[in-house]
Amino acid sequence: MFLGYFGWTTTAPAILGEIITAPLNVNAMTWRTCPAATELETLVIDWIRQWMDLPREFGGVVYDTASVGVMHALAVAREEAAPSVRKRGLIGAGAPVFRIYASEQAHSSAEKAAIALGLGEENVQRVPADANFCMDPSALREMIERDVRDNFKALAVIATVGTTSTASVDPVPEIARICRENKMWLHIDGAYGAGFAILPENKRLTNGWGEADSIVVNPHKSLFVPLDFSVLYVRDLDRLRRVFTLVPEYLRGDTVEVQKNYMDYGIQLGRRFRALKAWMIFRSFGREGMA
Fold first, then answer.
1. Which domains does the chain have, with CATH numbers?
2. What percentage of the chain exceeds 90 in pLDDT?
3. pTM of the full predicted structure?
């Protein structure tokens, strides 16, 4: 099982990057605490965005894993569906019972996110898959219609690009259409498969991505980056910042308002200088070398 969990994607430039990162031990939470970390993270995120042909309105942030990424994405979806949850909580805001939909082949991070966000594991509805292990859009539509009749709030759909068990790819364009009709959040879990979309022969994988609200990709699975390195892209990254920004008095002197402070885009304050190893890989191999 040594090779069973994708943990084989290290490279010499990445090792060098980690050797430099560890003794520097910088905290990449704000631009002021380490300008280089912030600037390189922004640069690397945009390189990957371009390689995957994502529209410019998608901005990203580096987390450790895709499980953390989907939790943050669903937190934004929850807040936009019930805007006072951040301040008052689910009960105080009078929020409805939310439902999340994912293929029966999708990763268990959907349930973990629901647990962490107070949405409830049982409210992650598993949609049947077809003969190719892909989500069945017709079944998805029927489940949403049934839940709406039963007074549930259809919150989000998680479409998977590269499932863990079979590497199947859900029909994103059809799922996006259903999400648009029902005013639902569309999250694409590309943790495994999205990195392969940088290959010219795999551009079909990106069909429908431009209609998503959020997308996660794990360069530590397919882009030669060692653990841990995952990128969450959100259409208009400020949606993420509005949910998580919280600057106490003791940090006000460390923030520069005109610069990006990545602590505002998640629950973490302390953040590793993850971008350096990715930057060294991408600079060493170049775009053509990566593909």
1. 66-217 (3.40.640.10)
2. 70
3. 0.93
